[in-house]
Amino acid sequence: MHEVPLWVTYTPLTVMLIGLALAYRNYMARPDAPAAFVAMFPHLHRFLMHKWYFDEFYDAVLVRPAFAIGRFLWHRGDEQTIDRFGPHGAAVAVAVGNRITTRLQSGYVYSYALVMLLGLIAATSWVFWWAS
To answer: 128, 122 in Cβ contact below 8 A?
Structure first.
């Protein structure tokens, strides 16, 4: 850093002094100079006032596509995929299962005994044929 050219060292000072002189001229000596500049170069003034249209470019290139991707992932990924097969799908499966099992509940003890006996036979069969 000690071996930089001399112009690099004095460039910030020079730019600051030029800016100070322009500010003094435009706001103290000749306050009508900025209005004359705007009248002479309206397109340049509009370009500079809109910050080189950087915000518009940033919005069009980065922000809107990011929102579109987020909206797509929200509707397609979250609502139509995850919720459909996840919590909402499980809730629908439980509701359908409840409708089916309410038909099996008659209130008679012998029907419950039959279901328990069939379950015991199924569990025993599984142990003998698949677990051994």
So the answer is: no
